[in-house]
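USER: If only I could read backbone structure tokens as easily as an amino acid sequence. It would mean a lot if you studied the pair and described how this chain folds. Here is the record:
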Amino acid sequence: MRILSRKSGRLLACALTAALLPSTAQGSPPSDETTRVSESRGTVTLDSPGYSVSISGRTGGQLALTTRRSGRTVLATGPEALRFRTGDTWQHATRLTDWRWQGGVLTLTADTTLAGARIEARLTPAPDRYRLDWDVTGAEAAELGLTYDLSSAGHWYGHGETATTSDGPYTDQPWPLDAGRVEAEDFSAASYQMVDPFWFTASSAGLYVDTGDTMDVSLNAAGDGLGRFTVESGSTYRATVFVESTPRAVYRDYIGIVGKPRQSDATYEQYAKPLWNSWAQFYTKVDQEKILDYATDLHDNGLDGHTVQLDDKWESNYGNMTFDPKAYPDPRAMSDRIHDLGYDFGLWVTLWINLDSANYRYAADHDYLLRDAADPTKPCTVTWWNGTAGIVDLANPEAKAWYQGNLRKLMDTYRVDGLKFDTRFFDDHCAGRDGHTRTDYQRLGSELADAYDLQGAGIRVHWSRAAHESGFVTRQIDKGTGWNSLKASVTQNLALSTIGYPFVETDMIGGSLSQPAPTKEVLVRWAQSASYMPLMYASISPVDTIDPPTGEKVDYDEETVALYRESIARHERLAPYIWDQVQDTLKTGDPILRPLFFDFPQDEAGYTIDDEWMLGPAVLAAPNLTASPSRDIHLPPGTWYDVNRGRTIKGPTTLKSYPTPLAVTPAFVNLRAKGADQALRALR
């Protein structure tokens, strides 16, 4: 094997052409192509087919990495590009002191701002990506991080649900990410937020951080235009940088690593009709009489659906798995009545068992609960919105069997058709059993839920191959009841869809968070928006609602009911088209609901549009998400049929001040796209 290197104190002006290594887990190199490494004026450049990476830092200052495609920068590091924390102080790589190209790996060594500490980085190229692995030597590092200049790559996407300085992810989800200020200090596989360590850009670059550890991720958090991706561990930092021709190609590269759905957890009927869940309608002030009145009013007003699901506060105590006898004197009769109305019946459940539950003592005595990370001799306790609890340990087969036995008894006794699993399957305050990691618990949670009908309520598992491959419906984190939350429900679905969770829905139509009931306009617009999404997840009824803060009844008028009913009917007509998109997703892994630039990557306007989306290849949805009587609508290149006005429009074009009275939901069909005829039959 020939080796090319540049030792400090020696001047070598040379270059090497060498064969790449055999295929790796992160990408298979071509058999006949070569990679070239050279040094000129203190900059080391790796030229691989399709892209190049330049590493500068010979003359002092800071180490910097710049990735180019066809001579154009598509991703560049920012200040303190490779940084690490020792004690309370952050340090970073400075002068490049050595490099070596051997066996298809470019190894770099750099000094740092900490005396005696060095960084060793390894770049392993493949045709459409390269691995970037690096370590700190000569010092004990507690955290390692990469810093990128966001503007070097255009706009940024990915991440999942965002914690922001503007109350994200509940009422704020910036799209693109650099349009807001994202600060996620507990970005983790154990997070309740749906997140994955994957980001992609308008320049068709991408970043995947391969870690099971908690991260601290910030994008423009201080308004500084920087992206910091910090792993809270001193172990090897493992990242993959994708370099592609389109953002969709980057997405597919990522799916090639984490997996695509092997099935759809939801049935055709669950795509076609809404799920009605009691949460935002009643919160915890619910009982047998109220849920039956709710189901009856939905039925009598023609508000179709496949299931009525009883959410939080049916148990005698959280974790007991028994109905509160005062609030539910005859649960089986309640279930039978809901079935008689034509709905399935579902229940909310959780693995979290409150300390005042009879089941808590039993589970603790039998070692069925996760143990405390600080003191593994005792159960881990976590505080949540309903008190203090322990969590059933799914890595203990006996605990899992006990929990599932309780579920089966409950379902058989009360004719329960399916379940809504809530809360997390693990918490960072707890210790994994026998070396099980956070991602292992995501897998165990996925395997548990996969045995039940989730009724379109989906589940919030992420960050693991099992979560991606299980094909669960993904419900968002709770939203408020205002216009900002409606907007966030759209951009959040775009984010979730493009990190590999294609079967998305909003949570919930009309919002929740114990805020005042939505106005008529917000409720109607939300239902209209959801009708152009893969699934409809509903709670607030337009015919029988109590305002949470006041306890007063909310009287929506007949127009509200009629327009909500019309949205349900539209979605049901679209169901054959949506179901075809589900089947395509099972083949390709592509999202169903996606940003315009996935289908039209050359259309620059589509990269910043946050209130339109493609539903499959043929349908462009542009509902009004504001109180305005009109909106501007951008149509990408193509021939589009305006389903509201019955006209054909040539794109690209922007329709200025398109009128949107409350009864109008703007949508367009791409007449040359696959599925156009089917979409036209549904929408004309």
Notes: The chain is about 25% helix and 30% strand. The radius of gyration is 27 Å. Confidence is low (pLDDT under 50) at residues 1-32. Residues 335 and 662 are 36 Å apart (CA to CA).
